[in-house]
Amino acid sequence: MLALQKLGERLTGLSANQLGRMPLSETMLAALEESKRIKSLNALRRHYRRLGKLLQQEDLDAIHQVVDELDNKHQASVAKFHNLERWRDRLIEGESEAFGAFLAEYQNADRQHLRQLIQAVKREQEKGAPPQAYRKLFKYLREVSGL
Q: Could you tell me the residue ranges of all domains in the chain?
């Protein structure tokens, strides 16, 4: 029963779009919507118990599958984000093989624009200026990678 309560608690944190992908009854959807209006901690605990009881009547396998897909999608997105951060750091450090490897992996990148952004970041760091070009470089890397 505690596992169902935890699942109910997890479902309350999902958006309406994400909940729409799950095979949930109208009663369950209404209860999840109601949980967003509850402010009292004790009332919220009671509500999680109610969600656990309502979940007993739902298709748990399908719900778990969608929740797992959402978690995996988020983890993949975070991994891509961290990969881009590593690319940015390697490009700024001036590794020429990193520049070539980046252009080989992301062939739609504009070589000249990328070099200009990297040089702007280096000048910015030398002056100790706010990281405006640093952000522009990362934004460009995200744009090129499709993230």
A: 2-58, 73-145
- Topology (CATH level 3) of domain 73-145: Diphtheria Toxin Repressor; domain 2 (1.10.60)
Cα–Cα dist 92/131, whole Å: 13
Tens of pLDDT along the chain (147 residues) come to 788 888 888 888 888 888 888 888 899 889 988 988 989 999 999 999 999 999 898 888 888 888 888 887 878 888 888 989 998 888 888 767 888 888 888 888 888 998 899 889 888 888 888 888 889 999 999 998 887
Q: Name the nearest CA neighbour of 132 among 142, 114, 117, 144.
A: 117
How far is the C-alpha of 95 from the C-alpha of 142, rounded, in Å? 20
Question: From the CB of residue 51, how many other CB atoms can be counted at a distance below 10 Å?
Answer: 23
pTM higher than 0.85 for the full model?
no
CA 106: distance to chain centroid?
22
